[in-house]
Every structure is written in C-alpha cells, then in structure tokens.
Amino acid sequence: MSKKKIAVVGAGIAGLVAALELDKVGMQVSVFEKSSGSGGRAKTTNRDSFNLNLGPHALYSMGSLNKYLAANGIELSGNYPATKRSAAIYGDKVVDLPVDVKHLLRTKYLNVFEKLEYAKFFGEVAKIDTEKLMNTTITDWLNSQFKSKKVRQTVEAFVRLSTYGNNPDIFSVGAGIKQLQLALNGVRYLDGGWQKITEALSKKLSPNVKMHFDSAVTSLNSSAQGVSLTVNGNEKEFDAVILCVPPNVVNSLIPGTVSDAVPSYASCLDVCLKKLPNPNATFALGIDEPLYLSVHSAAANLGPAGSAMIHVAYYCGSNQTEPSHEARLEKILDQLQPGWRNELVFKRFLPHMAASFGTPLAKLSGAPGLESPNLQGVENVYVCGDFVGKGYQLVDCATQSALDACKFLDQNQY
Ligand SMILES: Cc1cc2nc3c(=O)[nH]c(=O)nc-3n(C[C@H](O)[C@H](O)[C@H](O)COP(=O)(O)OP(=O)(O)OC[C@H]3O[C@@H](n4cnc5c(N)ncnc54)[C@H](O)[C@@H]3O)c2cc1C
Question: Which domains does the chain show, CATH number per domain?
Fold first, then answer.
C-alpha cells in the first residue's frame, strides 16, 4: 500500500501530537506552520537567561498531555507549586487562602459557619458526579448549593483557577468541577518552560516528517479524492488534512465550520526579577475579583540562580473589549511583593490572551464548540484544538482531539 500523504496545519502542541501519531503509523506527514517555529501558545520566550511561557502554564498531572508524554517516554523535570504560602485577595485585604485545614482555620475572611460550609464542599468535591451537571451553569449551581456568598465566591475562584474560564453564566459546572478534580490531583510547573514539551515532541518525529515554517495555509479545497491546500501561494495536494489552528482560521478555510466556540481570555503580566522581595507570598488568588499571582520560579527552574519569575493574570472571560488591567495587576504585585520594581530585570504585558478557544458550554452539555474532529460533509479534513471534543480542557483538549483526529483519519483511510 502506498504511503498516505497527510498535511498537518499548525505546529502548536496539537499539531505536533498529530504529526507524531501519523508518523508512527508510517504516513508521509508535512507540517505547515505560519510562524517561524513550533509551539503556538505553548511557546517559551528566552530573554536575559529567563525562560517565560506566554502567561502562566501548568501541566495537569492526570491530564491527557502528561499521560501522552509519559506513554511516549518523555519525562520532563519540574515541580508542584507549594501551597503553604498562599494568599486570598478579598477586597483590598490579603488573607490566608484556605488551601488546607490549617489555612482554613487561620483565614480571616470566612466566619466559622462559612468555614464549615467550605470544608464540607472540599471534603466531598472528589466524589461529585460531574456528568450529571454538564447541562447546568456554574452560576445556577453555585446559587443552589451555598448559603454564604463568600464561600460561593471562593469555590468559583478555584474553578476559575482550574479552567481559566470567567464566564460562569454559560460555563458548564460539570466541566468546571471535573477540571477542579483534575487540578486537585496536582499540576506542575516545568523547568525551562513549556518549550521543553515542544522540543521533546519535535525530537520524537522521524526525518520523514517535513516541517515547513513561515508557511501559512490560506485556502483549502476538499473532495472524495483528497485535499488541496494553498501554502504561500502554491497549490499542494494531500490525501487528508488535519487542521490544528484557531477556530477563526478553520472558518476562513471552511466557512461556517465552528459557530459555537466561546473563548476564555486572560490578560497576563509576566515579571522577571533579580530576586524575590517577599518569599512568603508565592501564590495568590482573587476571591471577589478574577485575579491570579504565582511565583513560578519558586517551583521550577526558569531563570538565573536566586532570581524570580512571577506570572500575574486577570481572567477576562470571553470579553476582549474590557480594559487591559495592566495597572491592576501591577497593584497586586505592589501589595504582595513590595519593592519588586527595584529588582526588575524586565516585564511583559500580554492583554487578552486566548487561554482556551472553547469554553465548555452548559447549553452543549459541556462541549467547547465543535463536538468531534471528524467534520460532517467535508471529506478528508479533520479539526483539533482546545475547542474540539468533549470532556477535556486547555492543552489536554488540544492533545485529546489531536489523538482522536488521527484515529478517525486512520479508520477512514484504511
Ligand atoms: C495565557 C495562557 C495560559 C495557559 N495556561 C494553560 C495551563 O496552565 N494549562 C493548560 O493545560 N493549558 C494552558 N493554556 C492553553 C494551552 O497553551 C493551549 O491549549 C495549547 O497550547 C493549544 O495548542 P494548539 O496546538 O491547539 O493551538 P496553538 O498553540 O494556538 O497552535 C496553533 C498554531 O497554528 C498556527 N497557525 C495559525 N494559522 C495558521 C495558518 N493559516 N497556517 C499555518 N499555521 C497556522 C499558529 O501559528 C500556531 O502555531 C494556556 C494558554 C494561554 C494563552
């Protein structure tokens, strides 16, 4: 049987996983990436001996990507963020974040009844049957479960932290709690940043895989015989194509394909310091405001010895027109890391980054936009990314949908 010629469009993590899977079964794979290198949103910037991800990136230990890496013999070093120096930002106060019994007893923003209500939820969260809650929104569920507004806000803050979503009126609470359960199984910050993932996946590709950078795909025509792509103005023919690109690019190539994907944006302030002014505040979560701060260098090796790398973020929900929040994020740093400006090596502000292109929607029973990588009515074209499939989020959704796309392609081709 002659080798099937497959094009993978996009060299983010989904594209690399798809390329590796197809390469393993002997298909002839060409990857087209519009930028000058691989990684997509999992890129790491190397500057002044620091390695910065595009905003805070944590790898879920029990998630699809981590399992896929392990199954392919890829082991990456890094560490679990410590919880013992965690703060909650409530109004203008910084108090203990109830991450364990000791912090819950100590924290000042919850009264004794609220502490009991909160402890009951976290005592039972692992057992919640999330499938039954897929059609319910976070807002409706929180309103029906908790008496205390502060407990409601705190649970919502932890779901927001796990999912990157700040759109509780449409977000499926089943999907939200499922992701919280996954987060409670542990997340890791990686030494050297997420470039280590893309480097390791790229290394696994055989020389048969042809990588084409600075190669934007601008049109696509599919038929029962195969698919033709326009790449930098040239026509190229393939037996099948896997699109691993954002939903707007999928729609520009095949109009009307993705209509339901609602993105979750975050504005990120990435800060590199000569040293950490306050080693006692390595993590903070906003309770009544969608804020995040984490000293990633406290868990992972991301810069020169003794230096500090902090990610601060504002969860914007699906709203890209909100103000950019840069000043608000700097104010949290002033509060938690006073003196940080004197230690500054450099900072970078990234407004409205698409942390996910697909929010799991209650109206779609927890699906994030496109339910399957296998497009109905479009022959030999498959789509993957963090807005495709069901039951996974963020990079695990991108990974899982890439694996599923390869399975469909394999089934349909042979
Ligand atoms: C701020 C932020 C924080 C995040 N934190 C986490 C986290 O903590 N945990 C987690 O699991 N996930 C996190 N994510 C999500 C994770 O980064 C993404 O889910 C994952 O990287 C998506 O991979 P992808 O390959 O599907 O898409 P992308 O990485 O977006 O890759 C798409 C690729 O397609 C290319 N492309 C676009 N158009 C074309 C074209 N016409 N022709 C050719 N190529 C094209 C792009 O250049 C890009 O390289 C975060 C994302 C962001 C932005």
Answer: 5-42+196-260+364-413 (3.50.50.60), 44-80+187-193+264-356 (3.30.519.10), 111-184 (1.10.405)
